Amino acid sequence: MRAGRCLLFHCLLLSVTSLCRGEDLCFNDNDDVVMPASYNIPWMADVQDFRTLSLVTIPGTHDTMALYGGPELECQSMTLMNQLRAGIRFLDLKVFGLGNTLYVMHGVIYQHSTLKDVVDTVRAFLAEFKSEAVLIRVQPESFEKSTVNEMVQSLIGGDQNVWVNSGMPNMGQVRGKIVFVQRSTFTLGIPFIDTNLSGNNEVSNIQNKDNSIIKQLNRATEACGGDNAVVTFTSGTGFGTFWGMFLTPKRVAERVNPWLNQYLRQFFPNQPRPCFGVIAMDFPGFDLIQTVISLNWW
């Protein structure tokens, strides 16, 4: 019975998301959005418990909390809770430790939130949707980066609903939990591989960016299912380049997101569909998020 309902839902999903149904639905720069009444918020409920987390294709956001700072710095428009309800399950955070507080930053701009605020919001979401898991990447920006580990450990305390082990769990082990991912100076949680190569974030030509993302996704497919989470950032900015000086993160996403949606949908006839790990985006719209999620079904 459950399998029949899942199949019906997936067929309906494919029928309504074959294309971006408007300029806002692959790319979205407005937080004043209303999800359809039928929108499936707890999509991870349909992921089998035995499936390794590194074999799940997960929509995420790059610089999740970067809602402030002007066109050169803003990477998202939806609040954190709206991102979670839209299906985002990977958060990318830069933090600066000062005193006993970890402030969420983008560059030198404070993003009106602390890491505690983020964790509290995610906990509230997971209390409502216990089938879900939310991955969080913390990137220390403090001068004393090593202290961030200790501050995060102090923040979460002995909470059993936070995964800080380095071993790769299956979906059943992390339902209702925050899953930290580690790289470089942050060492709590499962390790992750970034498919980006040096300079991938600098965009002076959109077609070159598209081609770069294809290479990244190919690398992601090869690495999926291992002991590491795999993350592909589709974001970019022309700031700091000559030819792309007017390509803000928003303008890049406005061009890349509809293309990305179409590129990913070509794999829908595949059985099984390829795994791409985490795809972290700027300004994703509902249709693009659902396209990423749909790569898990066949």
The domain count comes to 1
> What portion of the residues fall into strands of 2 or more residues?
15-25%
Main structural class: alpha/beta
Secondary-structure element pattern, one letter each: HEHEEEHEHEHEEHEHEH
* Strand count: 10
Would you write up a description of this structure?
With 298 residues, the protein is of the alpha/beta class. The chain has a single domain (42-294), classed as Alpha-Beta Barrel (TIM Barrel). Helices cover 32% and strands 18% of the residues. It is built from eight helices and ten strands. It has helices at residues 2-16, 80-86, 115-128, 146-156, 171-174, 206-223, 249-265, 286-294; strands spanning 58-61, 90-98, 101-106, 109-114, 133-140, 162-163, 177-182, 190-194, 229-233, 278-281. Strands 1, 2, 3, 4, 5, 6, 7, 8, 9 and 10 form a ten-stranded mixed beta sheet that branches. Helix 5 (171-174) links the parallel strand 6 and strand 7 (177-182). Helix 2 packs parallel to helix 3 (115-128). The chain is globular, with a radius of gyration of 18 Å. Mean pLDDT is 90; it is low at 1-18.
Task: Summarize this structure as a short list of keywords or feature phrases.
alpha/beta; ten-stranded mixed β-sheet; 8 helices; 10 strands; globular; disordered N terminus
Précis, in short:
By secondary structure, this protein is α/β, with parallel strands linked by helices. It has eight helices and ten strands.
Give the arrangement of secondary structure elements:
Blueprint: H1 2-16, E1 58-61, H2 80-86, E2 90-98, E3 101-106, E4 109-114, H3 115-128, E5 133-140, H4 146-156, E6 162-163, H5 171-174, E7 177-182, E8 190-194, H6 206-223, E9 229-233, H7 249-265, E10 278-281, H8 286-294
